[in-house]
Design goal:
- This protein is α/β, with parallel strands linked by helices and 206 residues long.
- It has a single domain, classed as Rossmann fold, CATH 3.40.50.
- Helix 1 packs across helix 2.
């Protein structure tokens, strides 16, 4: 559903799918240099970086890591469903919650496949991955730096409890280039219900 000439390369972090047996990262600092080395072979053509929710934070810090290392920069940074990185979360952290507490948090947030929530035998596989992601996300500490000299496009849900309109608009502080914000009906998982519209807008941005 992307334009011709756009090749999609997805990042698959340790702990997922065929990397299930690998220990997931719980801190951003050791993850960034590993990811930087993995994507270097793909930087010989014009590229953009896109991240959703925690992935938006990872995309932002990866872009700053590229700049710091002198590597080519993306022509565009696209972030979905995440408040600007310099803003702290108004919600209490949940990564130290009990397993039952994490399950309840997932139910409240929505978006988790019913297969996982309805089959307790899957939780010992899924919850450690989720807890690692939440630990990585909630222990993140923003470091001030110069804005990026590239466009940033942001996409969010009008009813997203994790990223309000104002929190999404604050991404503008991190670019000296063009900034756009597009909002869709729905909450944190707006991308599922409005996939075609979202991909059309992403294609237009690219």
């Amino acid at each position: 559903m992307l334009p011709k000439g756009v090749e999609l390369n997805a990042v698959q972090l340790p702990g997922r799918e065929n990397r299930l047996r690998e220990a997931p990262f719980t801190q951003l600092e050791p993850l960034l240099p590993v990811l930087l080395e993995e994507i270097r072979p793909y930087l010989d053509l014009p590229f953009a970086i896109l991240g959703y929710s925690f992935g938006a934070l990872l995309a932002f810090e990866l872009t700053r890591c590229l700049r710091q290392s002198g590597a080519p920069l993306p022509h565009h940074l696209l972030v979905l469903g995440r408040r600007a990185p310099h803003l702290t979360s108004p919600s209490p952290p949940v990564h130290q919650n009990s397993d039952a507490g994490l399950v309840e948090w997932m139910r409240d947030l929505g978006g988790t496949p019913a297969l996982i929530l309805e089959h307790p035998e899957l939780l010992p596989i899924f919850l450690p991955i989720l807890r690692a992601d939440l630990t990585l996300h909630e222990t993140y500490s923003y470091r001030p730096d110069a804005p990026l000299d590239l466009p940033i496009s942001t996409f969010g849900g009008l009813q997203d409890s994790q990223a309000s309109r104002e929190e999404m608009e604050a991404w503008q502080e991190h670019t000296t280039g063009r900034f756009t914000l597009r909002l869709y009906p729905g909450g944190h998982f707006f991308a599922k219900d409005y996939q075609a519209m979202l991909l059309r807008d992403i294609s237009a941005a690219l």
